[in-house]
Predict the structure of PPM-type phosphatase domain-containing protein.
Amino acid sequence: MLDRLRHCWKKLIRNRPNPRNQPLQLLHSGKDGSPPSCSYDIFGVGNRTVQAACTGPDIGISEYSNLFGSASHELKMETDWAYGRSTSLYDVGPSGVRAGEPIADCFAVVRFQDLNVLTVADGVGWGEPSKRAARSAVFGAISFLIKELPQLTENGSRANTDQVFQIMLKALDSAQQVILAQSGTQTTLVMTVVARLTTPVRRDGIQVSSAASKRHHDAPPSYASGKYYRWVALTVNVGDSAAFVYRRVERVVEELTYASHKGTFRDPHFTPGALGFANGRDPDLGNLTCSVSLLNEGDVVFLTSDGVIDNFNPFVLKTARQLYPRVSCDVQSEASNVTSTADDLIDGYLPALGPHECHNLQMDLLTLTAVEALSKLSAPTASSSQSFSAHDLVEGLLTHVMKVTEGQRIFAQEKVAAREAAIKDIKLVSTEKPLLSTSGIRCLSKELAIPGKMDHATVVAYIVGGGRKNGTSH
């Protein structure tokens, strides 16, 4: 698979006109962690009845049922259109215990009639404190959102995206307080609220008036014409967990959290922000990002921890290398604007990519995997009754990262087995031979050449409009 990707990606860089070279028209991000300037009117929670919900791994935030109160039982309602799962990509040791236990990721998704909330947290490091930090963050955020969002339209008042963003930012503080109270360490956190627009939004981002909306009330669904959007995704993230949308009509994946690392390489071994005890008792909000993206019914919003998205990174897959800016006597290129040249691709075994190209190809591979996972997906029409499952997407992404990291697990298990054998065989220890050896260097070189990154991996997905009684897709 990796050889095929090397060939395809080199060909893409040389010959392909990439549509992503143009800025995203449907994604708006605020500056310095503030919400975007655009604002849209949305429906509130509507019926307070929870239509779907799940959390994990294991019992997830239901562990805090004594704090969650009567709503804790509502987090055990998995459906085909709202689903999540966590797994470990680490190797199993000689004792039969998997490295990195317990899983330090956590997720939760709660679906109301016209509003859906997804969250993913990734505890920094291993152990119970990291697991506790992630679960505390998800619990603090999701419980605050479930409590506050329904109050936006309690008295018949209208809600807008600005109000939702203010509640989401306060949810970050709620998550931070729970982490401190539960003595967690540090964790990332990404939250996405998917809401239905009161009136459609045109392709240029302008929301039509109520009168115009009534005139087009009997028009075909928005995804059939492609002229209007009827849903919106609001995302807030801290750290390197990420949010994405699979656009059903365009058959392409876009990152909703792209602004948090725009113009830079995503570092698979470093988180640029974290909640918890990051700066004493304060969080590190260095890459706090708020973004809004317009959606259509049938699109799929999914959140992942870095253990998933990093295994789509061409550098982690060992199919490309980083391209650094070249300095000439009169011009110094910015890293964010560097592009690969023919010389860069021919010189050396791996193609050299800048940050923008790396992101594009990462999204290409993610799109290919999503399309393969949603193999039943066909171009939707107004009369199409074909549906697909969020469960298929989640399992497809996790299957991909498991395959990518298989070599890493085999190598780690072989290394442990060799060490155990060396300890048992005392003949390998001889004072007549020099103690220094290059075997460790050879071992490290081999490890660096193996693609993949072992980590905890989490995906939670939601099909936009899924479960609505008057929905058109499901």
In short: The chain is about 30% helix and 25% strand. The chain has one domain: 2-17+33-420+438-463. The first strand starts at residue 27 and ends at 29. Residues 128-148 form the longest helix (21 residues).
